[in-house]
Amino acid sequence: MKKESKALQLFQSLVGKTLDQTPSAAGNWLAGTLKEVSEKHIKVAYTVRAEMCNPAKILHGGIASLMLDDVIGMGNFVAGSEYLMTSINLNVDFLSASQIGEVLEVSAELIRSGSNLNHWEAVIQKDSGKIVAKASSNMIKTHVKLSDLGF
Description:
The chain is of the alpha+beta class.
């Protein structure tokens, strides 16, 4: 059986807590609540706030993209790579609107893990199950070791 990474152990200790003390300042501003985490899956809940909305008072596409990208990034962080990985693309489809006060769940799945590239898919869903947005992203390995960054 594979030993769990320190990053995964850390995130498992955060299940049920607000993610406002992570290395991602933008992610901390989102202030999501970690619901589930494993080496290949992560789920975070967010409440749509007024400052997350466009002038029409619906969730801004840029904020939805940030939610998707940040959850994929957290998922990739706990996936067990020795090296920092960074997004090389983020493809987002916006499928329905979300209003102030709605709770959204963002879940991400590791679809393929390679020696240099990880492929993720993610979705934002309302409590009703309606999909707000979906995304895919490729993360590429850098030459920076996570241990050199203090992780």
